[in-house]
């Protein structure tokens, strides 16, 4: 007689179950990276245009003053600008109630290297090759899983002790590194506002959020396929910019209309500008502009163009000092290139061309300078592109952070309201041609106004206040489905049941 071994049978059952789970996980990973046959694309629903009246379902206490915290860091100027624009939109919305707010950075008290996030960004923004390597390495599923686990294990105890979590009634994250831990620590309504246009990092997609606001269809589809964010949580809102840009655009009307020309002339007189002007903006750190500034100046003087160059230096005090003293940039210390390359012969500018450089530090009225100036030279930052499109100023893009800002260049070129080049002579020639050709500037301006959208902040504020007046908490945005259940449905190619 043959007797079956119960222990052996049990081990075989465990082996079969384990193999099935491993196959499901591998199929899920392949699906995330687009190695399997994709399902039918989902199209986002357009934002609601009808005004919303405050519902009477479980309204908050009338004596309670809500406190809103914005999670952000000074890694460039775009994240803080988005936080300020959302604060202004929440204040001005018709559903608004008096509230208090603050901008919080959770990393200064964290472990290394997270506490040095701002310093690391400054270094990497000046070394694009290092940024590109780190960006694409961290944008993979294995690295992302390890990084999320590492940040939680080494930082969650310190971050949990912060008083902002108990004081906050609404949490809004505008920074990709502040989406995972805050959603674990706090049970309050959590809103993620992605501050990118054409491409973004996978750290934005944390599925525990209450709502996720995206700026384009590309990011909507990426949030569904890469982040597995449920459709009921995704809102196609556009990129929030400060309401003052929309107000300036309404006062100006068309940039080259009769009303617009008169309004821009008044702005030029207010800011002390004469004639046509070129505006240079290099983000909060003011990097990567100096060579282009001097190249454009020499080219316009050589072709007899009279103009002014306004340079916003931000926190770059050395650049502001050199431009104030009219000191050209120091030569690069690359001995091999200096030996192999022939020395450049600088041509003497013709008489009749005069270009004045006006360096500025931080300014609180960039919208006025964008209205007054004729061409904007900048890197491909999403916030700056959205602001320029709302005011119809032609763009000249000189650089972008690999991966993160590469999709922004495509948006500008497809809309035909700007050019892109990394070559100093080519940038100088293109900007000079724009300054000499008013018809080309007018055509590019009209193309920019077609895609300009200054109402994104209002849409986001409308959704947040609607949820607040409904009395929703962090648990009221749908049940969290099990991870293996969703992986199994995706492996079988079934439609999402959300």
UniProtKB/TrEMBL annotation:
Residues 39-61 are annotated as: Disordered. GO terms for cellular component: chloroplast membrane. Its EC number is 2.4.1.46. It is found in: Plastid, Chloroplast membrane. Residues 79-241 form the Diacylglycerol glucosyltransferase N-terminal domain. One of its GO terms (biological process) is glycolipid biosynthetic process. Residues 289-397 form the Glycosyl transferase family 28 C-terminal domain. Belongs to the glycosyltransferase 28 family. This is monogalactosyldiacylglycerol synthase. It comes from Triparma strigata.
């Amino acid at each position: 007689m043959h007797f079956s071994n119960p222990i052996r049978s049990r081990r075989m059952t465990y082996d079969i179950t384990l193999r099935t789970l491993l196959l499901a996980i591998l199929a899920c990973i392949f699906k995330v990276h687009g190695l399997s046959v994709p399902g039918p694309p989902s199209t986002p629903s357009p934002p609601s245009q009808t005004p919303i009246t405050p519902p009477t379902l479980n309204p908050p206490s009338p004596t309670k003053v809500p406190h809103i915290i914005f999670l952000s860091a000074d890694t460039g100027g775009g994240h803080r600008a988005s936080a300020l624009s959302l604060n202004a939109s929440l204040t001005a919305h018709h559903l608004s109630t008096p509230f208090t707010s603050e901008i919080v950075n959770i990393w200064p008290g964290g472990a290394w290297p997270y506490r040095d996030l701002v310093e690391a960004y400054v270094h990497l923004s000046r070394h694009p090759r290092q940024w590109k390597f780190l960006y694409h390495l961290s944008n993979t599923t294995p690295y992302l899983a390890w990084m999320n686990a590492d940040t939680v294990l080494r930082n969650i105890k310190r971050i949990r002790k912060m008083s902002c979590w108990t004081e906050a009634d609404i949490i809004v994250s505008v920074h990709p590194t502040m989406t995972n831990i805050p959603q674990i620590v706090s049970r309050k309504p959590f809103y993620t506002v992605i501050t990118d246009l054409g491409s973004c990092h996978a750290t934005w997609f944390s599925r525990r959020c209450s709502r996720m606001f995206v700026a384009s269809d590309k990011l909507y589809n990426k949030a569904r396929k890469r982040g597995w964010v449920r459709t009921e949580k995704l809102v196609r809102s556009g990129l929030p910019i400060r309401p003052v840009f929309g107000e300036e655009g309404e006062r100006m009307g068309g940039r080259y209309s009769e009303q617009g020309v008169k309004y821009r002339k008044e702005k030029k007189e207010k800011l002390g500008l004469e004639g046509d002007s070129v505006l240079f903006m290099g983000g909060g750190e003011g990097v990567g502009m100096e060579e282009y500034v001097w190249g454009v100046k020499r080219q316009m003087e050589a072709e007899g163009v009279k103009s002014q160059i306004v340079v916003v230096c931000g926190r770059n005090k050395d650049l502001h000092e050199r431009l104030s003293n009219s000191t050209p940039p120091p030569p690069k210390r690359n001995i091999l290139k200096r030996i192999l390359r022939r020395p450049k012969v600088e041509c003497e500018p013709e008489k009749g061309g005069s270009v004045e450089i006006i360096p500025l530090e931080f300014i609180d009225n960039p919208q006025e300078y964008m209205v007054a100036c004729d061409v904007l030279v900048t890197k491909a930052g999403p916030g700056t592109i959205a602001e320029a499109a709302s005011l119809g100023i032609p763009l000249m893009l000189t650089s972008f952070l690999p991966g993160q800002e590469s999709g922004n260049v495509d948006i500008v070129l497809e809309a035909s309201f700007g050019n892109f080049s990394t070559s100093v002579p080519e940038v100088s020639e293109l900007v000079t041609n724009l300054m000499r050709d008013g018809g080309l500037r007018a055509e590019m301006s009209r193309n920019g106004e077609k895609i300009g959208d200054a109402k994104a902040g209002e849409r986001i504020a409308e959704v947040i206040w609607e949820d607040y007046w409904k009395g929703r908490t962090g648990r009221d945005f749908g049940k969290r489905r099990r991870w293996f259940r969703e992986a199994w449905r995706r492996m079988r190619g079934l439609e999402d049941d959300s």
